[in-house]
Write a structure and sequence with these properties.
By secondary structure, the protein is of the alpha/beta class. The protein has four domains: about 190 residues, Rossmann fold; about 150 residues, Dimethylsulfoxide Reductase, domain 2; about 130 residues, Barwin-like endoglucanases (Beta Barrel); about 230 residues, 2-Layer Sandwich (Alpha-Beta Plaits). Strands 5-4-16-15-14-6-7 form a seven-stranded mixed sheet, sandwiched between helices. Strands 21-23-22-25-19-24 form a six-stranded mixed sheet. A four-stranded parallel sheet has the order 11-10-9-12. The longest helix is centred in the first third of the chain and has 18 residues. The protein is globular and about 90 Å long.
Length: about 900
């Protein structure tokens, strides 16, 4: 009955992030970060947590399909044997592979072998989230492809040029960990790094900034040009008087930091902006210190992208396409007319996890093995290699990419483990087992390359001027990405960090632009660009750049699964080949409105001390600033104090470290079997998350400060919920937990009404089936150590009591006390910035005690004298 844990690696936009997966009797149930892996550092994000959900997804493709009808895999092999013979005779003429972005060394070697075997075979890459300018800039500057690695732990002053490095990119977890560590303040003598952000849409990186400037996408180039000119002691760049004043302060700060400064450019930005960022780092002496350049891990050589493939099909040069993992008929821009091109193929083979938009017209569709069922390998953002090992045998007739590549190489009886092991044949058995156990290969990270940035920036120049009119800024949905996770109900129902929108997407616009166009939240607008138009509901976003509209990918799916066919619009048709922005857009309000479901309806604190915050200078002048509005400490109570003479569990949440990434909420759901309720119930305010992350704005609507506050159950020592329950279903434990006894609960909801923090959740409906005849594979995702609740029962955060009990039993067996830090809650373990601390308040040496003794520690709604065990450190 005890769980076992295995190291593996999960893929994120083609790069690896190390994971430790918990398995109960051969069934994976929970994903945690691998502390030894450079990309995870022990943390996870919201998307990693759903790996177990997608594994047991009943909508996964289960069997090969030939022309849409179930077929045997043996029949597929027979047809592919004929294809292999034809390619062998023609050297692969007319054939093409369309692959996703991948850093798998084994896959790259297999594709290289296919090139040798079939010299005429073409390899194309379809990566809708690609940033081709990032590769172009290094070739222009250095003559070879290089990619930057940032060291935020060394940076004292940071400038982001439209780079959401906390929410995007394969290094986001490591970067969040390093940034938070360098900004952690516990005493007036501590120092913290300073973050400037220039951005063209609202991001969690911008929300974390000390100084933020929101501008149109086309104006970022002028800021980069002005920055470089100023650092070189020249005049240059354009911008308003406010931009000039902002830039002057910024440049002085960067110069003062010198080699400990860091300028980060968004990978989606133009080649000039990225070249300007590298040049600024060189001028500051930061190259080799806060930024290093390495050879890119994704070094797969291809013949072109989807646009080139469609052109080749149209010219008659390609008549057979094998699609490995990609879904081009969903992500292709409208101008490519990919549907027409693919419909003319003699043979289309699709390999994927779902029967998606590309699988439907395919002549053959082969189910893909889930990454928790697969043997593979992959590289992290810094080049470190790690292995992917299966936690379970394939549930269905799924095949890995390596197996299919082997088939096209003429190997029809394949073993994915043997394929990967053969590639790493240089490793002896001990080194192989060590790599499997550790989850990362020793000394496999890429070494930094020494470079010199040419003064002319390789001939790269900014645009003549910023564009007039409304601009479009395209972004990937933070959870669904390009739509590949659209069937993950956990992600559909997880609020977006800034908008708090669930089960759909909206077009984001600024308050000024909304007022000019007379647009309200939910108003449907028609967005037209380059001869294509899309209808989308509008959402007014404080702090959003004026005359800019943000459109997100990931929604508007037309095939693939049940949850994927949810509300939302598809932004891909409006896009160019790989552009992340467009100019000259026309917005036309429609007569109708569409529902936009959000879980937070109030955005301001209204002068209440909910999130208490101060600048670093103000903290140094008044370390007790959080006590300024605090009531006198109430010591008297009608109820006697309980003698907590053993453990007294408590939590502290550092609001300076919280970036609002929602990893804690997703981890809590995965750990505690929390149900999803669907869009209709969410619209009624009946979402079931035990932990929410409130987002507040303070200041003017065009440039507000943004604050995040995770709110779990406070586990009050004087809990208002306990005294009103008529059946004693909500009770206090000996170690201070506010516990919920499910089989006593009769659903009066008095406890929820009396909870001032509104953290209790009621099961209005039976969201989880208990009928054995109706049970599907999705039941396999449940944590066996946590009760699954039924209709009519109240539930809430338990401080992960099952983890507390497991460690207590282990300590009793070993005849010792529970060590400090031994109990780690799910939210705490997932947090990339280590914003959450949990432990025994009775241990004087406990970290949670040190956190609570910090001068900025305070309790939420402490005037109510609930004495919450969960407290906050002011920002």
């Amino acid at each position: 009955g005890k769980p076992v844990h295995y190291a593996t690696t999960l893929s994120s936009d083609g790069f690896g992030i190390g994971a430790i997966v918990e398995s109960h009797e051969g069934r994976p149930t929970k994903v945690e970060g691998n502390p030894d892996h450079p990309a995870s550092r022990g943390a996870t994000d919201a998307v990693m947590q759903v790996a177990v959900l997608t594994l047991f997804d009943p909508d996964r493709s289960r069997t090969p399909l030939k022309d849409g009808e179930p077929a045997a895999y043996g029949d597929f092999l027979k047809d592919m044997a004929a294809l292999v013979s034809r390619w062998a005779a023609s050297q692969g003429h007319g054939g093409a592979l369309l692959v996703e972005a991948t850093t798998s060394p084994t896959a790259a070697a297999q594709i290289d072998a296919l090139r040798v075997r079939y010299p005429e075979l073409k390899i194309y890459r379809q990566d809708p989230l690609a940033t081709p300018a990032a590769e172009a800039v290094s070739r222009a500057l250095f003559g070879s492809s290089l990619t930057p690695i940032y060291r935020f732990d060394r940076a004292d002053v940071i400038l982001s040029l439209d780079a959401d490095f906390l929410g995007e990119g394969p290094g986001r977890l490591a970067y969040a960990r390093d940034l938070a560590a360098h900004r952690r303040v516990r005493s007036p003598n501590d120092r913290m790094s300073r973050l400037y952000v220039v951005e063209s849409t609202s991001t969690i990186t911008g929300a974390a900034a000390d100084h933020r400037l929101a501008i149109k996408p086309s104006e970022v180039e002028s800021v980069a040009a002005g920055l470089n000119a100023a650092l070189a002691g020249q005049s240059g760049g354009s911008g308003s008087a406010i931009d000039q004043a902002w830039r002057t302060v910024l440049v002085d700060d960067l110069r003062a930091a010198g080699r400990n400064a860091l300028v980060v450019a968004g990978a989606h930005q133009s080649a000039f902006v990225q070249a300007a960022a590298l040049s600024a780092n060189a001028k500051l002496g930061a190259l080799g210190n806060t930024v290093e350049l390495i050879e890119p891990p994704d070094a797969l050589q291809v013949d072109g992208d989807l646009a080139a493939l469609c052109e080749a099909i149209g010219d008659g040069a390609i008549d057979t396409v094998v699609v490995l993992g990609a879904n081009p008929l969903h992500t292709a821009p409208a101008r490519l007319d990919a549907h027409k091109a693919f419909s003319s193929l003699k043979l289309l083979v699709h390999h994927g996890l779902y029967r998606d938009e590309t699988a439907f017209p395919a002549h053959w569709h082969v189910p893909a093995a889930h990454e928790l069922e697969s043997w593979s390998d992959i590289r992290a953002h810094d080049g470190a290699a790690s292995l992917v090992q299966p936690l379970i045998k394939p549930l269905y007739d799924g095949k890995t990419m390596h197996e299919l590549l082997a088939v096209f190489g003429g190997q029809f009886e394949t073993d994915p483990l043997a394929i990967v092991r053969q590639h790493w044949a240089a490793l002896d058995d001990d080194a192989w087992r060590k790599a499997l156990r550790d989850g990362v290969m020793s000394n496999s990270a890429a070494r930094p390359v020494s470079v010199t940035v040419p003064p002319d920036l390789g001939g790269l120049r900014p645009a003549a001027k910023a564009a007039d009119g409304i601009e479009i800024r395209f972004v990937a949905d933070p959870w669904l990405r390009d739509g590949r996770f659209a069937n993950a109900s956990w992600l559909q129902e997880l609020p977006r960090p800034l908008t708090k929108i669930v089960w759909g997407n909206a077009a984001l616009i600024s308050p000024v632009t909304a007022e000019r166009l007379k647009i309200a939240n939910g108003k449907v607008i028609n967005v037209a660009s380059n001869g294509v138009n899309v209808d989308a509901p509008a959402w007014i976003m404080p702090g959003h750049p004026d005359e800019t509209i943000t459109l997100s990918f990931g929604f508007g799916r037309k095939a693939g699964s049940v949850a994927a066919l949810s509300e939302g619009y598809d932004a891909f048709p409006l896009r160019g080949t790989a552009e992340w922005m467009a100019t000259g857009a026309v917005i036309t309000p429609r007569e109708n409105s569409a529902r936009v479901i959000t879980t937070q309806h109030h955005q301001a604190m209204e002068g209440r001390a909910i999130v208490r915050h101060a600048s670093l200078d103000a903290f140094r002048q008044d370390p007790d600033f959080v006590r300024k509005d605090a009531p006198p400490d109430p010591t008297e109570s009608l109820y006697p104090d309980w003698p907590y003479d053993q453990e007294a569990w408590a939590m502290a949440i550092d609001l300076s470290a919280c970036i609002g990434c929602m990893a804690c909420v997703s981890a809590c759901q995965a750990e505690n079997n929390i149900a999803t309720v669907g869009p209709d119930e969410c619209e009624r305010g009946r979402e079931m998350h035990w932990l929410r992350v409130d987002r507040y704005y303070a200041g003017p609507l065009d440039a507000p400060e943004t604050f995040f506050q995770p709110v779990p159950c406070m586990h009050c020592e004087k809990a208002p919920c306990e005294v009103v329950c008529p059946v004693n279903a909500t009770v206090h434990t000996h170690d201070g937990l506010n516990a919920q006894v499910y089989n006593r609960c009769i659903g009066t909801r008095y406890c929820s009404q009396n909870c001032p923090y509104k953290v209790r959740r009621f099961n209005f409906l039976d969201h989880q089936s208990f009928d054995k005849d109706e049970a599907g594979p999705e039941q396999g995702v449940h944590n066996p150590n946590v009760s699954v609740r039924s209709r009519g029962v109240m539930e809430k955060c338990t401080y992960c009591v099952q983890r507390i009990s497991a460690k207590r039993i282990q300590a009793q067996i070993e005849n010792r006390d529970i060590a400090d830090g031994e109990v780690v809650t799910a939210c705490q373990q997932a947090c990339p910035t280590q914003a959450i601390t949990f432990g025994d308040r009775n241990r004087k040496d406990a970290k949670v005690v040190r956190e609570k003794s910090a001068p900025q520690n305070y309790a939420l709604l402490e005037e109510l004298n609930t004495r919450p065990r969960t407290t906050y450190l002011g920002k």
